[in-house]
Amino acid sequence: MKKINKYIPAFFLTVFIQACLVCGFAQVTDYKNIWLHAPENIPYENSIDAPLMGNGDITMSVGYVPGRLRYYIGKNDFWRLQSQFDKLSGPRVAGFLDISADELSRPNFTAEQNISDGITTCKLYKNSLQVRSWVSATDNLICIELEAGKNPIDIAIHLSAPYHHQAILQTGSDKNIFWLTRAFSEKVEIPTRVAIGMKILNRKTDRFVLEANQKVIVILAINSQFKTKDPLQSVIQKCSSISSIQLPGLLEKHEAWWKNYWAKSNLTVSDTVLQKAYYQGLYTMAACSRDKKFPPGIFGWVTTDYPNWNGDYHLNYNFQAPFYGLYAANRIEQGVPQDAPLIDFMPRGAWYAQQVTHTRGILNPVGIGPLGNEPTRNANVPKWLANGNIEAGGLFWQQRSDAAYGLINMTQCWRYTYDLEYGKKIYPYLKGVVDFWEDFLKLENGRYIIEGDAIHEGSGKDMNPILSLGLIRDAFELAIDLSKELKVDQPRVGKWNEILSKLSKYPVYERNGKKIFRLSEKGFDWVAGNGLAIQHIYPSNGINLDSDPELIEIAKNTITQKNSWADGNTTNSFYAAAIRVGYDSSIVLKELHAYALRTHPNGFQVQNPHGIENACTVANALDELLCMSVGNTIRLFQGWPRTEEASFTNIRAWGAFLVSSAMKKGMVVSVKINSEKGRDCTIQNPWPNQAITVYRNNKKAETLSGSRIRFKTSVGEQIELKP
């Protein structure tokens, strides 16, 4: 077994091992490793249970049937790109690697994964064969190491891909390098092609006897036409150049990448189940999201050519949800890829706005793909379902909010970083959204209203759906902020402020004797499942602890009655919404603990069909509890139980601050703030009724007092606060 790297903090070691035991995983005896244990006999094409590996471009999962171990290899940029519904577009499997042996025909298989670096070990029938695999974090290479047990074993290793009538598959070998290419180039808008090369070090064939206690290493190289002109030649050259002498260096670079990734931020809480879920979610997103043009689709890992929902980017929350927690957790590199397909779809969105709503701006359908692709176009659905839901060939479900929903994570990334280059990148998309709503909103009786916008898919022409009201507020506030920082479109700011001042209030009504939020002012009022009644709070940033106390009380009542702690759709936003309005943290943490236990070993939620959407639900909730900064006011340990100790390092706060703090024995004992952009900082006094001394770059500066303090900072300044 591989020992864990020294860079992992001590808490990381013990917590994950304890969490495995709490979760009922197989017992860990090697306390120098962090392992997640998969159940025995994971079947083919079941990524829900399978150990997941990847580097943000290549993804790999593993399954088993008696006699054969299969690795599913995917590449984020390998899609069939035809803008048509009914599985004609979507991500596709790059290939399979099968490891077969007659001796392994008896069903016995377990998998262990070290999430500090993704290295995964599969053990087959009484350790007859042990297979250790990892996807290089720094190169498009996969390393698979086979080790026989006490007896020799006949091994066959086969590189293949699933049959698909639209795919062009070629296979061959070149000087002991086995290869395949898979392409979708006929009747598509953009041809795609991927190549996989395989080299078995020190072996000349793909069938051989592995002697007792001996090892053999398989190297796979993967490339695509989006990364190189000739992907096949690229992988053959890569495989040719690899030798066993180079592997230690490759592994060292791999470990260094993961070391840097885990160093970006961390936290410690006493609940080991939550701590495990926190890091497992961040691991998941590191493994599937880094390609700046091709973010992961709804399932992240591709194990079949026919994924549900075409495996697309579903814009009425599913696509955005796994990214929610990345920005506060300081994993910006993993969050930025979600922007690309939205920006690339802008020309089509502008066409839809002209054709469907006769407005400026952009109007997006429910599902898109990369590079302007539209997997939901011309949806072949029953006539009764298509009535009103398909417009100009696009599947909208009568919703007008999908483009604005696409801004959610862009808004978060901007507010957490204040990166001017990033602001310039997203500003055209933002303008498309505000242009649309400037035209689509109607001014009636002194207020702006929304007409003909479904709150739920196909719910009809609702008036003032609460989600859209939240998204609009967030969009126009972002437009005003970016206009100021980028010094653009300043004559339009007056109009944007007017819209915000006159925008309809969130609809409310009485239910079960309590005033709660209504799904729309006219139309749908309530749905038992789903959390749309709270998404104006989060992720739309519409209500926080500085809001009208009456709104906060209505929000709490809504959360109580909605009770969506285990919802099959929007749980990923429900916890953060509850935290944002100061809901009872003992309930939040209790439900979050139960939520973290309702997972498969790889972190996928049980009985949730939407893939990776819940990857960072726990990470997002814990970061909000420990360091909430919505509205540009930092609140440390807001509502955190004073009986529970906790600490964190480098959680991002609005305004481009990196915050570190700790609580012991019910008291905040340290506060450190790194100011990246030199903006003014506002913080709720961590020591009520006490004055605060500000230290700047380790030198005592001013003393401040009050329940909320505000002070100036300079770029790169290190601030420490002491009572």
What would you say about this model in short?
It contains 17 helices and 38 strands. The strands form eleven sheets. A nine-stranded antiparallel sheet has the order 1-8-9-10-11-17-15-14-13, covered by helices on one side. A hairpin with a 7-residue loop joins strand 14 (177-184) and strand 15 (192-200).
Weakly predicted, low-confidence segments: 1-46
Distance between the termini: 47 Å
| Percentage of β-strand residues | 25-35%
Overall shape:
globular
Helix content: 25-40%
Number of individual domains? 3
What's the level 1 CATH class of the largest domain? Answer: Mainly Alpha
Output mean pLDDT. Answer: 91
Please provide the count of β strands: 38
**Helices and strands: which structural class?**
alpha+beta
The CATH architecture of the largest domain would be Alpha/alpha barrel
* Widest β-sheet, arrangement of strands: 1-8-9-10-11-17-15-14-13
Over all CA atoms, what is the radius of gyration?
26 Å
Q: In this structure, how is the largest beta sheet organized?
A: 9 strands, antiparallel
Within the CATH hierarchy, at the fold level, what is the topology of the largest domain?
Answer: Glycosyltransferase
- Output the number of helix runs: 17
